[in-house]
Known about the structure:
heterodimer, A: mainly alpha, 12 helices, B: 6-stranded mixed sheet, 34% strand, transmembrane (chain A)
Amino acid sequence: MSASLPDAAPAAPGDETPVRRFPTAPLFLSGPAALLFAALVLTPLFLTALLSFNQFDYATGRTGGFTLEHYLAVVTDEYYLEIFLRTFRISALATAICVVIGVPEAYILSRMSNPWRSIFLLVILAPLLVSVVVRAFGWSMLLGPEGPVNGALIALGIGRMKLLYSEGTVVVALVHVMLPFMVIPVWTSLQKLDPAVEQAALSFGASRATAIVRVVAPQILPGILSGSLIVFGLSASAFAIPGLLGGRRLKMVATVVYDQYLSDLNWPMGAAVAVILLAANLIIMLTYHRMVEGHYRRRLG
Amino acid sequence: MSFLELKNITKRYGPMTAVGDVSLSVEKGEFVSLLGPSGCGKTTTLQMIAGFVEPSAGTIRLDGRDITRAKANSRGLGIVFQSYALFPHMTVFDNVSFGLEMQRVPKGERKPRVEEALSLVHLSPYAKRYPRELSGGQRQRVALARALVIRPPVLLLDEPLSNLDAKLREAMQFELREIQRKVGTTTVMVTHDQAEAFSISDRVVVMEAGRITQIDQPYRIYEHPETEFISRFVGKTNLLPGKVVTATGAGATVSLAGIAVPLETAGLSVGETVTLCIRPEKLHLTAPSGGLLTGRVADRFFLGSQWLYHIDGPLGTLMVVTPNDGSTPAEQGAPVGLDWSPSVVRVHRGAMAEAPDVALEVTG
């Protein structure tokens, strides 16, 4: 998952002195991190990809050989298709809501003066200090049949509602968990904005809303883009939230992978689902990135 | 009544007064500069005219209308920001067109007006470029075109040339003035650069510590600075402390370290402590013992069209500027005489203030 910011540097200028020795210092300096990345990320990914092509024998539980049946099964089975569609629908919805809430939040934050700005930045970041599992349990207590939300609904005469184990609940909890990942990149790109640009728009007679839509928003678009890529990627592969708040029936891809590995013990199938999720995620995010960024590359550089 | 009128404008931030009791009248079509060191309140004053900062007290009137509390986006002023504040995601054309669009000028009328504004600043071929594809000087012109295209009653310039290199700055100064004359827009410019203020303004407003200390034509401010601060801030100057020894109705004599110097200033009283200001270019080098003082050339600097000498003498080190007329300059260490006409000496009453190094920092 690349959350690459769009201000990627242009290609390094070519060496002007052809006699210069091949630089070794950068290799040595980036070596340890590269090794760590290869050992801890690429190796398991490679092994997972290999595993997904293994045959699986239900009787003995042994794996081996080569087959494409798991991929075929995932692609053709409507059960899996539905889970993939649901995952991307929930992730897209969570991302959209994060944009709608997070962008104004970051804007308001950037307009605050100091004691309050620091306090509210802390309030926004503080949830990151609490484990996702704890926060998921927090939501399930809030929204449970005997929870305060249902208590209030009953008191208001609306009656008890089934809130848990629904798509809505998963989306709400995902938004809650992912919001900081939207606010931070947008806030960063707002910091880079020249405040005089907004004043300029006002001086030419633009209303505050017009100034924001026409002048501020287009300039923080790269931040919104990075934020939505992070939020979408993390949501699509989220496990704890759908696992705890989606229950047994409302499955998302990550929970299916978990089931395949630990309930069905069909590791190759789980691996195939995981690889497809990775590929689908990459395709969706790269397309999105292209679409939005290509549009703005020439303008913002 | 003046076109733009500031009356007792004050801005306080907590206990600190950024701008105190500033009153200023600007006539229609006039080019006025607010000049002062950083932190003197000139930018805050401009921001209050623009509507980005609300005055704590006082009134601002534009063409008879009270705009003190009017919102920035209802004033219709053209503003050129120090950072230019161009819209980076819009082309030059769209940048200039933005103000017209906000004024709901019909589309058919917008295009010719934008083109006219761009040709005024010689940028017609760049209409389709984005700001980051332009040089500093070109961006500056886009900012100017963008401010002028809406035909504002007043043009506000906030340090418009400070981000340009020296050569371009000089060229833009004259161009700015030429454009302003052509369009005839009333203009208020903020600057800390006295050369900039002097060369293009009709009147200069010198500000110090949030207050106006002098409003006058550039030439008058240079020749008749009302305070010692102004004489130091505006151009180079020699400040000489002395005591009045004789005073008549038509002049006086001041003793500078035992040397009697005649003055044409009336109204001084005997025994008074005064500070004399003499601009370096008003001093002449003469043959030794041919002038009022004698001294020795401590240092000399070649400035192209001029020579700058540091002359050590009984009054300390004096700066002397002489035009480079092609003759052989005085050698370092050579004895010289210094002479000046009594009419060029300006007198400030009272002792010399401390910290004359302010002058060294800001004079150009």
